[in-house]
Every structure is written in structure tokens, then in C-alpha cells.
Amino acid sequence: MNIIKHSLAVLGMIAAPAFAAGQVTISIDAGKPGPVINKNVYGQFAEHLGTGIYEGMYVGLKSNIPNTRGWRNDVVGALKELHVPLVRWPGGCFADTYHWRDGVGPQDKRPGNVHANGAIEEINAVGTHEFFDLIDMLGADAYVNGNVGTGSVQEMSDWVEYMTSDGGSPLARLRAQNGHEKPFKVAYFGIGNELWGCGGNMKPDYYANLYSNYENFLRAPEKSRPKMIASGGNGFDTAWTDVLSKELKGRTVGISVHQYTIPGSSWEVKGKDLGFKEDEWMSTLANTLKMDQLVKNHVAVLDKHDPEKKIGLMVDEWGTWYDEAGARSALFQQNSLRDALVAALSFHIFHEHAERVPMTTIAQMVNVLQAMILTDKEKMVLTPTYYTFQMYVPFQDARSLPLAIKDNTSYTLGATTIPGVSASAARAKDGKVYLALVNTDPSKAVDVAVNVAGTMVKGAAGKVLTSATMDAHNTFQNPQVIKPAAFSARAAGGKLAIKVPAKAVMVVALEE
Ligand code: AHR
């Protein structure tokens, strides 16, 4: 009986069951491509904080953990799979206490110093040369963040010259003496971090003046001058975007903004990484979706002062931040299926604003906050967030496609309701149309009908990430608890129906 039903469905003689009433319909218009989704939207942030750099990524040449010039082979190998386009370094709040000269020259001669951020003793084994070694291994671009808080115009100017000067200058000679004859390529350079807080508790007007002063003296060859980023406001505070986009026209390619997702209603009680109830599943996803309004608010201000769209909104810190109770190291947290949905929903929002959001860097890469990878000495696990980044690789530099969702489901808990399905589509560099889907409902699967205007879609194939529990996660003992599974669907009667499981992220390529 089942065989007969299946054959009839394939022949288009009976409606596929998923086309029943209550189905969500997604219509993609491949004939009207939108802006390109800059690959740098998938950038990452690696800060000298907790075990984010040391142990997590860099173990030194003498370590028993297999490494290449000190960088862990397992971690670098896994990150390569993500095609990481851009890495922001060395902070964060760390950047505003970092003095670059401490991190160049022979490693055994470098000083140690204590930094406010994470109360660690910084050994300075990873400095400029080591960072660019990592960047080279990953094939990524560099986003270096300078020190405004405790540095000086001269120090920052010297660092940029040290990295970018193509010869002749004493700092270029010092770089060569330290082992790197050719200049390093700095794609972006950030002038300070969180100046409203850890970077110096400043006001935007004061920083705008400081920025102009710093930027004016950052010497680099014209052809390889880094794109300068101004450090902007906190979350929904658009005052910084307002002042900076007015005052820094022509002197910055982007204004940064930081927005973290916490499940709780205050920073004092953020919520747990694991073992949470459905109310925190809901609040986490609902809070993540606020990113859309946040971006719209900042974009409205940018549109006022920069209608030519020369200044981007760089969301260079985003992701989940949970209570740290019992963490192995500063800001270490587990990462569950919930984090995978946070990442996917955030991507959809960034895609939607591709024109104004050319770069984001998730906080952070390894062992800190919403990480791709967790390590415990020689052990390593890939997180659900890692797998989400991997599934979305085709969206890097893809052309976004307009998409309409009809009859969307909604997911309600108590007084909160959010859309049941979130979707994003793009034509990737390989020529295929990719569709990403999130089902926010933790209990109900959803049937989605997909059509692409002017095309007969024959099928879809890709990956789905889900699990039985909301906080499914990988541990050092059980590293394979949650990982993507293959998914495919065939069109019936010229129509494609996809069943998206409860609490799932799915990315498929459509077969046209
Ligand atoms: O990502 C952790 C910290 O959060 C960064 O150092 C800082 O910029 C932000 O407040």
C-alpha cells in the first residue's frame, strides 16, 4: 500500500500529504536577486580571554597536543571547514589594554602582564606574527582591533605601520627582523572597543574627536590601507551611530554595534546554558529576533546621514551569553541546539539587511561565549553553533533572493508569540538556490511548501540539525550527541514539500 501511494505521489497523481491545509508556503523570486550577502557576515571573534586563545587554539610549540607553529591542528582543521572569512583580534575589552610591542620579537623575551579582562596573566606568546600565521592557515582576512583606552595615537600609528608598511621604514625593518619581510594584510582595523564602557566610559562626541585624531595618523600604503571601523554604541543605543555617522563621513567604512542574547531579563541573572525550561527557550529566541529591530533602528540613522550607503553597520559582537556558574574558564559556556537556532535566526536577519550589514563577528570562536569549538586540554568538541556555521557556508557571498512566507505558523508560550518558521534564500556562487529554514517550535514539526517563481523545483537536498531535547549538546565524553543529518525531498506534481522537524535548522539546495 505504501509503495503504491509513494509511486502515485511521484507520478503526481495524488497530492503529496504535506500539501494539506495548514501548510506554510514559501515563495522565492529567483528572477529578482537582491544584494550580495558579504561573506564577512560569517566572521568570528577571537579574544585573549579565558581559554579562548591559549589552550583553546594556541598551545605553543612544545605542547604534546599536535600543533603547527603552536596552533592546534584539530582546532584549525575544524575551523577551515567553516571557510572562516574574517577573524577579529585581539579583543574586545582586551584590545584596550593591549600593547602590541609586548607581542613581537622572540617569544621567550616577551613580557607577561595582567589584564583587567578575565583577570588573566597574558603571556604574549600570541602576538601580531602568530595571529597572522593563524589567518594564513585559515585563509581568512584580518580584522585587528587597536587600543584607544590605554594606548596612544603614536602606539596605534606605529602598529599599523609595522603591519602594513612595504619597506623602507624602521618599523618595516623591525617586522622583517622579527621574521616577516612582506607586509601583513590588514583588511579592517578597529579604532578602540566599547568606548562607552570598558574602552573608557566616553561620550560619543568625545570619541568622534578622538577617532579623527587616531585615524589621521594611521599610516599605511594607499593600496593596502585597512578599512577603518569606528566603535559604536551598545545594543539599541543609536546615539553613537548618530554622532559617528555624521562626524566621521569619509573616514570610516563602518560603525560597530554589540548585541548579546541573554535568556533572562537582567545581566545579573542571565540564565543557564543547559537544563533550562521551555520559557527560556522561548525568551532566548524572542530576544534573538530583537536583532531585526535593532538593525532597523541603526540603519534608519545611517540612512539619514549616509544615504549613499558608504558606512556599514558592523555587528562585531553577537551571540548568547549565559551565567558563568562553574565555568572551566572565563566566559566558558556550553552550547546547545538552542544556540544553533540563535545563530540561524541571526543569519536570516543579517541576510535581510545585507545592503547595510557587510560584516559581523560572532562572540566568540573557541571556549568563550557562543563558541564554535570547546576544548579540554587535548580534547575538542564541535558545538551545534559550529554545525550551523558549516551548513550556512553556501550563503557566503551568495546573492540574496526575495522570499515570501504565506500562512506562517506561530509559536506561543504564555504571553509571547514568535513566528514558527524563519527562512532565507540565496543563489550561491555554485549557481544553486539555497533555502535555509528554522522551526522555532520545540514540539511541532511543520510542513512547508516551496516554490520558486518561473521554475519547476524537482527536489531539495541538504542537512538538518535537530535533537530530542532543547539543550542537546556535545560533551568531551559524548562528542557526537548532536550533529547534522542528511535530508532530501522530491517534488510531487511539480510541488516541493518539506517537513521541518520541531526545533530544527535546515539548509537545502534546490534542484531546479
Ligand atoms: O566578548 C566578551 C566581551 O564582551 C568583550 O571583551 C567586550 O567587548 C564585550 O563587552
Question: What does this protein structure show overall?
Answer:
Keywords: Carbohydrate metabolism, Glycosidase, Hydrolase, Signal. One of its GO terms (molecular function) is alpha-L-arabinofuranosidase activity. Residues 316-504 form the Alpha-L-arabinofuranosidase C-terminal domain. With 512 residues, this protein is of the alpha/beta class. Helices cover 24% and strands 25% of the residues. Strands 2-5-8-9-10-11-12-13 form an 8-stranded parallel barrel, surrounded by 6 helices. A 6-stranded antiparallel β-sheet has the order 16-20-21-26-23-24, with helices on one face. A 4-stranded mixed β-sheet has the order 17-1-22-25, with no helix packed on it. Strand 3 and strand 4 form a beta hairpin. It binds alpha-L-arabinofuranose (AHR).
The total strand number stands at 26
Record the strand order, biggest sheet: 2-5-8-9-10-11-12-13
Any guess at the CATH architecture of the largest domain? Alpha-Beta Barrel
Instruction: Provide the gyration radius in Å.
Output: 24 Å
Structural class: alpha/beta
Enzyme class: hydrolase
EC number: 3.2.1.55
Keywords: Carbohydrate metabolism, Glycosidase, Hydrolase, Signal
GO molecular function, one term: alpha-L-arabinofuranosidase activity
Descriptive terms for the model:
signal, glycosidase, 8-stranded parallel β-barrel, 512 residues, TIM Barrel, Immunoglobulin-like, binds alpha-L-arabinofuranose, 26 strands, ASD1_cat, 6-stranded antiparallel beta sheet, alpha/beta, hydrolase, 24% helix, 10 helices
